[in-house]
Amino acid sequence: MTHDHDHNHDHTHSHDHDKDHGHGHDHDHGHDHGHSHDHGPGHSHSHDHGPVHELTFEQKLETLFAHWIDHNESHKDTFFTWAGRAKEAGLEAVAADIEQAGQLSEKVTLLLRDALEKVKKIV
Length: 123
Hints:
Blueprint: E1 34-38, E2 44-48, H1 57-88, H2 92-122
Antiparallel strand pairs: 1-2
């Protein structure tokens, strides 16, 4: 005996944002932004900015560097946390790779901070 049936699944996910990555999800700014954000399936919102104030290229870089530094630091911290967990699980080689990724992230942050300081001298 065979039968047909449909499988409908709602897929939800959560975000753990210990640090601000510049894209909050439930927020009220008290003003409109004028553009929409797409954060993946079933997860978008839009804003109306009103009058547009164009940033200079250097101001855009400053904003990007601040975001990238914060975001990279978050990943670096996660790498070191998981390297420790891998080590505790007896996965020494895996832990070493994850730890190296954390160390490289530290170098990336230093480069981004250096570039940010150079841009700030221009602005």
